[in-house]
Amino acid sequence: MSQIPGKLNITTIQVENVFFKAMLAGYVSNTKVKTENMPGMPGYKFTEFIDGDFCVKDVWCKSSGFTSIWYKGILVWTMSFGGEYSKACISFLKEVLRKAYVNKNSVGCRGSNIAANDEYTYVNKVVVGSNFARFHGTEYIFRAETFKKTGYHHYFGGLV
Fold first, then answer.
1. pTM reported for the whole predicted model
2. CA distances from residue 99 to 37, 70, 88, 92, 102 in whole angstroms, order as listed
3. Which of 9, 25, 116, 132: CA 20 to 30 A from 16?
4. Which helix (H) or strand (E) holds 123?
5. Residue 1 pLDDT more than 60?
6. Where in the chain are the domains?
């Protein structure tokens, strides 16, 4: 269990667990989540998740954004992402991410390496050696029948 550098008395595992809780309560939740407009960033929305001394902000506009985790007001972790997805495949994307987060699977903090249903196939190409502390990669969704790409995200992040 690695300690976060500096004077903070938290571990990487604690930060990772807060990430999973926040994601399950936010974007991939099965229930309607309250979003707010991001001040000073027209078109951007955000959700905020508080757990003790942790605060997680998930900020996005269309198909780009970032997630940040703060501990006692100090930024400790961040993830940035960007790309494009067709609206038609968003519920599948959320399903893939939800399964990964329920299982505490942090393959680049996105979905599993591969997942599929009758309509779509999800592929996550995370760079070898990536872990929760430092990661990057690209995820794709393809139509199952034609393997035609319907979207992608590049992502990167880790401890700061």
1. 0.90
2. 27, 24, 19, 11, 5
3. 116
4. strand 120-126
5. no
6. 12-159
